[in-house]
Amino acid sequence: MILENSKIEIHKNLIRQIGSVWGEGLTLGRHSADDLANRFGTPLYAFNAESARTNLVRVSKSFGDNVGILYALKANPNVSIGRIFRSLNVGAEVASAGEILIALKAGFSRSSIRFSGPGKRNEDLIFALENRIGAINIESEREYEKICELARFSDYKPVLTLRVNPKGGSSGSRMSMAGKSKKFGIDQDRILELARRISTENVCELEGLHIYAGTQCFDHFAWLKNARDLLGLANELERFVPIRTLNFGGGFGVALFDGDPEFDLDSAGKGLQAMIAEDGKPERKYFIELGRYLVANSGVYLSRILYKKKSFDRNHLILDGGMHHHSAAAGIGAILRRPFPIVSAKACSSLVSEEVTLGGVLCTPADEFASGLSLPECEEGDVIGILGSGAYGLTFSNILFLSHPSPAEVLVDGEDARLIRERGKIEDALSGQVFSVLGQEGIS
Ligand SMILES: *Cc1c(COP(=O)(O)O)cnc(C)c1O
Asked: N or C terminus: which one in the chain shows less Cβ crowding within 10 Å?
C-alpha cells in the first residue's frame, strides 16, 4: 500500500530536511534565510550540504556496498554540489560534453563517469572518447555506428553499455521514458542482435546494460520489477556475451505536492539486494543513478517581495524572482500545474493570516508560483522561500526570457556559507549577441 502525505506533512518534512524548525523562521542549519538574503542578495538559490550528504548516506545504507551510486548531474550541475558527492565515493551520470566538463571539474575520476542521452552529437562523443570516460550508454544502433567511426582514428577501445527500452509494463513514474515507443534506449527485442554485433565487430567493448524508466517514481514495486527484468535480460544475453555491469537507473520520487507519497527507499534497497544475492555473480558490478532524490530537499529558492497590491478581490505579492530562474515551480514541464511548498522566511508554519497570489517579476501570466496561497502576513521586502528547489531549479529554467540577470547560488555547510555561482549582471543581456548591421548601416 502506498500512503499519501498531506500538504502540511510534506511542508514539515522539507522544513526539517533543509535544517529548519517548524513554526520558527526559515533556516539552513545555522544560517537564517534572511541573513543569507541580506548577505548574498536575492533572488538566491541556497543549498545545505548536510541535507545532500544525509540523502546520500540514507541511499547507501538502504542499497548496501554492492551497489554503486551515480549522481545525475543534470538535477543540479553546480560543481560545488558535485564535489559533495564525489567526496563520498559517488560516480557521475552525465548527459552532455558540458556535464563531462563539470564532472571533471568536480573531481570525479574519468572512469566513474557514465554518459547517457538519446541525442549525443559528434562533439559530445569525441569529447567523451578523448576523456576516456567510464562508459558511453548508447541509445540507438546509429549511435553505436558513429562511435565506431570515431574510434577507428584512435587506439582507444570505447566502453559501451546499452540502454534498454523494456517490452512493456509500468515504469511507476510520473513521467515515463520507457515501455513503449520512445526516443530513449534500444527496444528490448533488438538488444541481443546489437550485443552480438558489438562483440563480433570488436571495435568497442560491450560492458553492460542500463535502464532508466522515468522520473518521480513513487512505486518501488514497479521499479524493482524493471530491475528484475533487466537482470533476466542480462542473464539471457550472457549465453552469448559477458554482461559485467548492470545499471538499474533511479528516478526515485520526492514528495512535493499535496497527496504525494514517500518513496519506500528501504524496500527498494532491500529488494535489490535480494535480487543481487540471488544473481550470485560477485564479479558483476551494479549501479543506481539518482538526481532529484539526492538534492531536491537540500535547496530553497529565495526571493523578496517587491510589491504588494490588491486587484479586484485578491491580494497579489510580486517577487523579485520568477519562472526564468525556477520554471518547474511555475509548473513548466508538469502535466498538472500545482504549487511547490512555499513559506515565508519569517515563519515557516501553518500560521496563516492571508491568502495571496504569488507572481514573479516577468511580464507573462505564466510567471506565477501559486494562487490562493496561505501565508503569514507579509510586507514588501520580506523573503519568500520555495522549498524542494535543490533539483531541476535553475538548470531547468528559461533564463533568457525577459533578459533579467541570473540568480546567485550559495552553499551552506555547518558554519560556512559561500557563493558558488555569481549573480548575473544587466550587461549579460547582450552576452553572445552579434550586432548585425545588415540593412542598418549608420546605426551603432
Ligand atoms: C535524468 C536522469 C537521471 C536522474 O533522474 P532523477 O529523476 O533526477 O533521479 C538518471 N538517469 C538518466 C539516464 C537520466 O536521464
From this structure: N
